[in-house]
Design a protein that fits this description.
The structure holds two protein chains of two kinds. By secondary structure, chain A is mainly α. Chain A contains 14 helices and two strands, in the order αααβαααβαααααααα. The longest helix of chain A has 22 residues. Classes of the chains: A mainly alpha, B alpha+beta.
């Protein structure tokens, strides 16, 4: 095994183990680490949506961004870049989040759900692959959002510094208005009320961000690269994360095989499938999965930063417009949103072609 | 016959895709310009898997020149 393969396999295993252990320390089951869910909780923690059960400033997310920043600084890869299809990327971030909240998880959580025995995630995985295949078809047709330009140091540091602010807010828990609540909010019940101690969450985020930056981990990139160049490098990361979390789940007794009664999941196959199709397609058009976007935002890539902010906006939209699924299944508005999202992505993939 | 592919500033996976297109056009010597290590690694892996020799050097501005040859 080459050194690079060792990095993606070892790193993937470690990320899977960390995600499993975070459940032991208090995070919701099969949700030790989820980019979409945790950005959604942060949106709620900042009061951007009013779904009371999913409000918490998850330290894993800013930790991940800062871990990537650290790895990029050490590797001399921290570089201010951006300006490629900025608002298109913001929109793709929104759509990626809506798809993920209809399925109930980003590609990372999809792997964690698989490793917990949740067979609905198999359906999600198939949908994800279909979305990636459509995206690859657009790539082969000349899809391109244009070149990013070198930017200012100020721009590069906005997302890392924003991450520091989020960490300070969750540690200091400031109260500006005792009657109305705020500026930050905490769930009293539901998934948002289940969390690991702050120090553990933050450390987990830092480690995962550091590894993901070094290994170039991208969960939409695996199938994409295999389809384009038969390259299996990133696919090894998928397998390793799955194995890592599976082993921890088996040891800790979190593994339950089946479709019904899985933690924070629903059994509607069509919308598990199409929700992840939307995530896969939007991720290919945006140049990376939600996790990869966070990592890029940490290494000075402001296009990644804009996509992350799009995901935060998407979370607020998804909950305020009643599009996010629950254990009971997808909502009417969620179904409509996924259909519209797929149409919008198709239009973007078709319209943004090189001459 | 040699070809220069400028892939600086392009999102994943366009740098590797453009390098692959150049190889598949039958070019024997290709120079690819990229601005990040991820693209450098992806292109190196792709070209080496196709049996090409790959050399690279970093410029003063941090960009990479990748030389692919048969």
């Amino acid at each position: 095994m080459s050194r690079r393969d060792g990095l993606i396999v070892g790193g993937g295993l470690l990320i899977g183990v960390i995600a499993g252990l975070l459940v032991y320390f208090g995070n919701p089951q099969n949700m030790g680490f989820c980019i979409a869910c945790f950005l959604r909780d942060i949106a709620g923690g900042l009061g951007l949506h009013r779904a009371g059960v999913v409000q918490y400033l998850r330290p894993e997310i800013p930790g991940l961004v800062l871990g990537a920043t650290l790895a990029a600084l050490i590797g001399h890869e921290f570089k201010s870049k951006g300006g490629s299809g900025t608002l298109v990327r913001f929109l793709l971030g929104i759509l990626m989040m809506i798809g993920a909240l209809v399925f109930l998880g980003c590609p990372l959580r999809m792997l964690l759900r698989l490793g917990g025995g949740d067979l609905n995630a198999v359906v999600g995985l198939l949908g994800f692959i279909v979305g990636i295949a459509v995206g690859v078809w657009f790539l082969k047709g000349g899809y391109n959002l244009g070149r990013a330009q070198n930017g200012s140091a100020v721009a590069a540091w906005i997302m890392p510094l924003l991450s520091v602010v989020i960490v300070l807010l969750v540690i200091l828990k400031p109260v500006f208005n005792a009657d109305a609540g705020g500026p930050i909010f905490f769930s009293a019940e539901g998934p948002g009320s289940m969390f690991a101690p702050i120090a553990i969450s933050l450390a987990a985020g830092l480690i995962v961000g550091f590894i993901a930056q070094r290994a170039r981990l991208c969960l939409s990139g695996g199938f994409r690269d295999f389809a384009l160049t038969k390259d299996t490098y990133l696919l090894k990361g998928y397998g390793a994360i799955f194995v890592g979390v599976l082993v921890v789940n088996l040891i800790l007794g979190y593994f339950t095989l089946g479709f019904a009664d899985q933690p924070i999941a629903h059994t509607d196959g069509i919308w598990n499938f199409l929700g992840m199709t939307l995530v896969g397609l939007a991720a290919i058009l945006a140049g990376g999965c939600p996790l990869r976007q966070l990592v890029m935002s940490g290494q000075g890539d402001t296009d990644g930063g804009v996509t992350v902010l799009g995901m935060v906006a998407g979370a607020a939209i998804a909950h305020n417009f009643g599009m996010a699924s629950s254990a009971a299944g997808p909502t009417y508005y969620g179904i409509i949103a996924v259909i519209i999202g797929l149409i919008i992505c198709t239009c973007i993939g078709w319209a943004c072609r090189e001459a | 016959m040699s070809d220069v592919v400028d892939a600086r500033g392009l999102s994943c996976p366009l740098p590797v895709l453009k390098a692959k297109e150049a190889i598949e056009k039958g070019e024997e010597k290709i120079e690819v310009l990229v601005d990040n290590n991820t693209a450098l690694e992806n292109i190196t892996r792709m070209a080496e898997n196709k049996g090409f020799t790959v050399e690279s050097q970093q410029n003063a501005d941090g960009d990479w020149q990748i030389f692919i040859s048969r």
